[in-house]
Task: inverse folding
Protein backbone atom coordinates (compact mmCIF):
# COMPACT_ATOMS: atom_id res chain seq x y z
CA UNK A 1 0.00 0.00 0.00
CA UNK A 2 1.41 3.44 -0.85
CA UNK A 3 1.42 6.24 1.72
CA UNK A 4 -1.26 8.05 -0.26
CA UNK A 5 -3.91 5.36 -0.01
CA UNK A 6 -6.62 6.00 2.56
CA UNK A 7 -7.93 2.87 4.17
CA UNK A 8 -11.55 2.07 5.01
CA UNK A 9 -12.90 -1.13 6.45
CA UNK A 10 -15.40 -3.15 8.41
CA UNK A 11 -14.95 -4.51 11.92
CA UNK A 12 -17.02 -7.41 13.23
CA UNK A 13 -16.60 -10.92 14.51
CA UNK A 14 -17.48 -13.00 11.45
CA UNK A 15 -17.25 -11.19 8.14
CA UNK A 16 -17.27 -13.95 5.53
CA UNK A 17 -20.82 -12.91 4.46
CA UNK A 18 -19.91 -9.21 4.17
CA UNK A 19 -21.59 -7.12 1.49
CA UNK A 20 -19.53 -3.98 2.19
CA UNK A 21 -16.15 -4.94 0.73
CA UNK A 22 -17.52 -5.92 -2.67
CA UNK A 23 -19.91 -2.92 -2.63
CA UNK A 24 -17.11 -0.40 -2.06
CA UNK A 25 -14.62 -2.06 -4.38
CA UNK A 26 -17.23 -2.10 -7.15
CA UNK A 27 -18.01 1.56 -6.42
CA UNK A 28 -14.30 2.48 -6.65
CA UNK A 29 -14.00 0.59 -9.98
CA UNK A 30 -17.21 1.89 -11.53
CA UNK A 31 -16.64 5.52 -10.59
CA UNK A 32 -12.85 5.43 -11.09
CA UNK A 33 -12.24 6.44 -7.47
CA UNK A 34 -8.57 6.05 -6.62
CA UNK A 35 -6.70 6.53 -3.37
CA UNK A 36 -9.03 4.39 -1.24
CA UNK A 37 -9.16 0.73 -0.30
CA UNK A 38 -11.73 -1.18 1.79
CA UNK A 39 -10.71 -4.14 3.95
CA UNK A 40 -12.35 -6.58 6.37
CA UNK A 41 -11.07 -6.81 9.95
CA UNK A 42 -12.35 -9.72 12.01
CA UNK A 43 -11.84 -8.94 15.71
CA UNK A 44 -11.99 -11.72 18.30
CA UNK A 45 -13.00 -9.12 20.89
CA UNK A 46 -13.32 -5.34 21.12
CA UNK A 47 -9.96 -5.35 22.96
CA UNK A 48 -8.40 -5.65 19.51
CA UNK A 49 -9.85 -2.28 18.42
CA UNK A 50 -7.01 0.05 19.46
CA UNK A 51 -4.26 -2.39 18.34
CA UNK A 52 -6.02 -2.45 14.93
CA UNK A 53 -5.95 1.36 14.70
CA UNK A 54 -2.27 1.41 15.73
CA UNK A 55 -1.38 -1.18 13.09
CA UNK A 56 -3.27 0.70 10.32
CA UNK A 57 -2.45 4.41 10.57
CA UNK A 58 -3.98 5.02 7.13
CA UNK A 59 -7.48 4.16 8.38
CA UNK A 60 -9.88 7.08 7.89
CA UNK A 61 -13.16 5.25 8.41
CA UNK A 62 -14.75 2.05 9.61
CA UNK A 63 -18.09 0.33 9.41
CA UNK A 64 -19.06 -1.67 12.47
CA UNK A 65 -21.15 -4.83 12.58
CA UNK A 66 -22.25 -7.56 14.98
CA UNK A 67 -21.33 -7.75 17.86
CA UNK A 68 -19.49 -4.42 18.22
CA UNK A 69 -22.07 -1.72 17.37
CA UNK A 70 -22.64 -1.01 21.05
CA UNK A 71 -19.32 -2.22 22.49
CA UNK A 72 -17.30 0.28 20.45
CA UNK A 73 -19.16 3.34 21.74
CA UNK A 74 -17.08 3.96 24.92
CA UNK A 75 -13.95 4.23 22.74
CA UNK A 76 -15.28 7.15 20.67
CA UNK A 77 -14.70 10.81 21.44
CA UNK A 78 -17.83 12.05 19.72
CA UNK A 79 -21.19 10.37 19.01
CA UNK A 80 -23.81 11.80 16.66
CA UNK A 81 -27.27 12.61 18.04
CA UNK A 82 -28.85 9.74 16.09
CA UNK A 83 -26.28 7.16 17.18
CA UNK A 84 -26.63 8.38 20.78
CA UNK A 85 -30.43 8.08 20.72
CA UNK A 86 -30.27 4.65 19.08
CA UNK A 87 -27.46 3.42 21.33
CA UNK A 88 -25.50 1.88 18.45
CA UNK A 89 -22.73 3.00 16.08
CA UNK A 90 -22.18 1.44 12.67
CA UNK A 91 -19.89 4.12 11.15
CA UNK A 92 -16.70 5.58 12.64
CA UNK A 93 -14.87 8.53 11.15
CA UNK A 94 -11.18 8.88 12.01
CA UNK A 95 -9.86 12.40 11.53
CA UNK A 96 -6.51 13.58 12.94
CA UNK A 97 -6.69 10.73 15.46
CA UNK A 98 -10.19 11.72 16.64
CA UNK A 99 -12.87 9.01 16.54
CA UNK A 100 -16.50 10.00 15.85
CA UNK A 101 -19.42 7.57 15.75
CA UNK A 102 -22.55 7.68 13.57
CA UNK A 103 -25.50 5.43 12.70
CA UNK A 104 -26.18 5.13 8.99
CA UNK A 105 -28.66 2.22 9.47
CA UNK A 106 -31.06 4.86 10.81
CA UNK A 107 -30.62 6.96 7.67
CA UNK A 108 -30.82 3.96 5.31
CA UNK A 109 -33.99 2.57 6.83
CA UNK A 110 -35.70 5.95 7.05
CA UNK A 111 -34.99 6.97 3.45
CA UNK A 112 -35.96 3.56 2.12
CA UNK A 113 -39.18 3.28 4.14
CA UNK A 114 -40.39 6.79 3.34
CA UNK A 115 -39.79 6.42 -0.38
CA UNK A 116 -41.72 3.12 -0.36
CA UNK A 117 -44.82 3.99 1.69
CA UNK A 118 -47.44 5.99 -0.21
CA UNK A 119 -47.34 9.73 0.56
CA UNK A 120 -49.46 10.51 3.60
CA UNK A 121 -49.65 6.84 4.65
CA UNK A 122 -51.07 6.46 8.15
CA UNK A 123 -51.18 3.32 10.23
CA UNK A 124 -49.51 1.35 12.95
CA UNK A 125 -46.48 -0.91 12.76
CA UNK A 126 -45.26 -4.19 14.24
CA UNK A 127 -41.50 -4.47 14.70
CA UNK A 128 -40.39 -8.11 14.88
CA UNK A 129 -37.23 -8.71 16.92
CA UNK A 130 -35.51 -6.55 19.51
CA UNK A 131 -31.83 -6.67 18.51
CA UNK A 132 -29.40 -4.07 17.18
CA UNK A 133 -31.21 -3.46 13.88
CA UNK A 134 -34.56 -2.90 15.58
CA UNK A 135 -33.03 -0.02 17.59
CA UNK A 136 -32.62 1.96 14.37
CA UNK A 137 -36.12 0.95 13.19
CA UNK A 138 -37.67 2.06 16.50
CA UNK A 139 -36.05 5.48 16.27
CA UNK A 140 -37.11 6.00 12.66
CA UNK A 141 -40.74 5.13 13.46
CA UNK A 142 -40.69 7.45 16.48
CA UNK A 143 -39.30 10.30 14.38
CA UNK A 144 -41.90 9.63 11.66
CA UNK A 145 -44.74 9.53 14.21
CA UNK A 146 -45.69 5.97 13.24
CA UNK A 147 -47.05 4.18 16.34
CA UNK A 148 -45.51 0.73 16.76
CA UNK A 149 -45.58 -2.43 18.85
CA UNK A 150 -42.49 -4.57 19.44
CA UNK A 151 -42.86 -8.35 19.06
CA UNK A 152 -40.28 -10.61 20.69
CA UNK A 153 -39.74 -14.20 21.75
CA UNK A 154 -39.58 -12.89 25.32
CA UNK A 155 -42.40 -10.96 26.98
CA UNK A 156 -41.62 -7.64 28.66
CA UNK A 157 -43.19 -4.30 29.59
CA UNK A 158 -42.50 -2.80 26.14
CA UNK A 159 -43.11 -5.90 23.99
CA UNK A 160 -45.51 -8.74 23.29
CA UNK A 161 -44.70 -12.32 22.37
CA UNK A 162 -45.68 -13.86 19.04
CA UNK A 163 -48.38 -15.84 20.92
CA UNK A 164 -49.79 -12.64 22.43
CA UNK A 165 -49.71 -10.95 19.02
CA UNK A 166 -51.85 -13.80 17.69
CA UNK A 167 -54.28 -13.68 20.63
CA UNK A 168 -54.71 -9.91 20.23
CA UNK A 169 -54.92 -10.23 16.43
CA UNK A 170 -52.25 -7.53 16.07
CA UNK A 171 -51.58 -8.47 12.45
CA UNK A 172 -55.04 -7.21 11.48
CA UNK A 173 -54.63 -3.91 13.32
CA UNK A 174 -51.01 -3.17 12.26
CA UNK A 175 -50.56 -2.74 8.53
CA UNK A 176 -46.83 -2.13 8.42
CA UNK A 177 -44.85 -5.19 9.57
CA UNK A 178 -41.07 -4.95 9.76
CA UNK A 179 -38.92 -8.05 10.09
CA UNK A 180 -35.80 -7.09 12.02
CA UNK A 181 -34.94 -10.66 12.95
CA UNK A 182 -32.46 -12.77 10.95
CA UNK A 183 -35.23 -15.30 10.13
CA UNK A 184 -35.26 -16.16 6.43
CA UNK A 185 -31.65 -15.12 5.84
CA UNK A 186 -29.28 -17.45 3.98
CA UNK A 187 -28.84 -20.35 4.59
CA UNK A 188 -32.10 -20.70 6.59
CA UNK A 189 -34.24 -19.43 3.75
CA UNK A 190 -37.41 -21.34 4.62
CA UNK A 191 -37.77 -19.77 8.07
CA UNK A 192 -40.06 -16.79 8.76
CA UNK A 193 -41.41 -14.98 11.84
CA UNK A 194 -44.28 -16.84 13.53
CA UNK A 195 -47.22 -14.64 12.48
CA UNK A 196 -50.71 -15.50 11.34
CA UNK A 197 -50.15 -14.67 7.67
CA UNK A 198 -53.81 -15.47 6.89
CA UNK A 199 -54.65 -12.11 8.51
CA UNK A 200 -52.52 -10.19 6.04
CA UNK A 201 -54.28 -8.47 3.17
CA UNK A 202 -53.87 -6.00 0.34
CA UNK A 203 -53.48 -3.03 2.67
CA UNK A 204 -50.44 -4.49 4.40
CA UNK A 205 -46.81 -3.48 3.84
CA UNK A 206 -44.16 -6.03 4.78
CA UNK A 207 -40.61 -4.69 5.03
CA UNK A 208 -37.85 -7.25 5.54
CA UNK A 209 -34.44 -5.99 6.67
CA UNK A 210 -33.04 -9.27 5.33
CA UNK A 211 -31.72 -8.84 1.77
CA UNK A 212 -30.32 -12.27 1.04
CA UNK A 213 -32.20 -14.04 -0.55
CA UNK A 214 -33.85 -11.33 -2.64
CA UNK A 215 -37.34 -12.68 -1.88
CA UNK A 216 -37.55 -14.01 1.65
CA UNK A 217 -40.11 -16.44 3.01
CA UNK A 218 -41.64 -13.55 5.04
CA UNK A 219 -42.07 -11.55 1.82
CA UNK A 220 -43.43 -14.56 -0.08
CA UNK A 221 -46.03 -15.32 2.62
CA UNK A 222 -47.08 -11.67 2.57
CA UNK A 223 -47.28 -11.25 -1.18
CA UNK A 224 -49.34 -14.48 -1.43
CA UNK A 225 -51.94 -12.57 0.60
CA UNK A 226 -51.74 -9.50 -1.66
CA UNK A 227 -49.47 -7.38 0.57
CA UNK A 228 -46.77 -5.06 -0.77
CA UNK A 229 -43.33 -6.33 0.20
CA UNK A 230 -39.77 -5.02 0.20
CA UNK A 231 -36.39 -6.46 1.11
CA UNK A 232 -33.45 -4.75 2.88
CA UNK A 233 -31.15 -4.22 -0.10
CA UNK A 234 -32.01 -0.57 -0.66
CA UNK A 235 -31.51 0.15 3.05
CA UNK A 236 -28.11 -1.56 2.86
CA UNK A 237 -27.03 0.47 -0.16
CA UNK A 238 -28.30 3.73 1.31
CA UNK A 239 -26.45 3.11 4.59
CA UNK A 240 -23.23 2.31 2.66
CA UNK A 241 -23.57 5.55 0.67
CA UNK A 242 -24.22 7.49 3.86
CA UNK A 243 -21.03 5.96 5.34
CA UNK A 244 -19.07 7.17 2.31
CA UNK A 245 -20.52 10.67 2.73
CA UNK A 246 -19.58 10.69 6.42
CA UNK A 247 -15.99 9.61 5.69
CA UNK A 248 -15.31 11.77 2.67
CA UNK A 249 -17.88 14.57 2.69
CA UNK A 250 -18.92 13.63 -0.87
N1 LIG B 1 -30.72 -4.14 5.25
C1 LIG B 1 -29.84 -3.61 6.08
O1 LIG B 1 -29.19 -2.60 5.79
C2 LIG B 1 -29.64 -4.24 7.41
C3 LIG B 1 -29.02 -3.52 8.46
C4 LIG B 1 -28.91 -4.14 9.72
C5 LIG B 1 -29.36 -5.45 9.88
N2 LIG B 1 -29.93 -6.10 8.83
C6 LIG B 1 -30.45 -7.47 8.99
O2 LIG B 1 -31.43 -7.43 10.00
C7 LIG B 1 -31.45 -8.67 10.70
C8 LIG B 1 -31.38 -8.40 12.19
O3 LIG B 1 -30.13 -7.80 12.50
P1 LIG B 1 -29.64 -7.67 14.02
O4 LIG B 1 -28.27 -7.14 13.98
O5 LIG B 1 -30.63 -6.94 14.84
O6 LIG B 1 -29.59 -9.21 14.43
P2 LIG B 1 -29.66 -9.93 15.83
O7 LIG B 1 -29.31 -8.94 16.90
O8 LIG B 1 -28.88 -11.19 15.69
O9 LIG B 1 -31.20 -10.36 15.95
C9 LIG B 1 -32.23 -9.45 16.04
C10 LIG B 1 -33.37 -10.01 16.88
O10 LIG B 1 -34.06 -11.01 16.17
C11 LIG B 1 -34.68 -11.88 17.08
N3 LIG B 1 -34.28 -13.25 16.73
C12 LIG B 1 -33.03 -13.74 16.59
N4 LIG B 1 -33.06 -15.05 16.26
C13 LIG B 1 -34.37 -15.39 16.20
C14 LIG B 1 -35.05 -16.59 15.93
N5 LIG B 1 -34.40 -17.73 15.66
N6 LIG B 1 -36.41 -16.57 15.95
C15 LIG B 1 -37.09 -15.43 16.23
N7 LIG B 1 -36.48 -14.27 16.50
C16 LIG B 1 -35.15 -14.24 16.49
C17 LIG B 1 -34.18 -11.50 18.48
O11 LIG B 1 -35.15 -10.69 19.11
P3 LIG B 1 -36.05 -11.30 20.31
O12 LIG B 1 -35.07 -11.95 21.24
O13 LIG B 1 -36.70 -10.09 20.86
O14 LIG B 1 -37.01 -12.27 19.72
C18 LIG B 1 -32.95 -10.69 18.17
O15 LIG B 1 -32.63 -9.76 19.16
C19 LIG B 1 -30.27 -9.48 10.16
O16 LIG B 1 -30.75 -10.39 9.21
C20 LIG B 1 -29.40 -8.45 9.49
O17 LIG B 1 -28.66 -8.98 8.40
C21 LIG B 1 -30.08 -5.53 7.62
Result:
Amino acid sequence: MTGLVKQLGLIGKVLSHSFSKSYFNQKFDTLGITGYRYDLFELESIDEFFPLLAAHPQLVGLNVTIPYKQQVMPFLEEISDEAGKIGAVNVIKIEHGKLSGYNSDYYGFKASLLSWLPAGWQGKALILGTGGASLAVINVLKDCNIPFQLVSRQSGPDRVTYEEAEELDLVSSHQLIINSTPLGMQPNILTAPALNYQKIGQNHFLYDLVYNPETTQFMRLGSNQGARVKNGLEMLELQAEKSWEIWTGR
About this structure: The first helix runs from residue 20 to 31. Residues 66, 105, 108, 129-134, 152-154, 180-183, 185, 209-211, 232, 235-236, 239 surround NAP (CB under 6 Å).
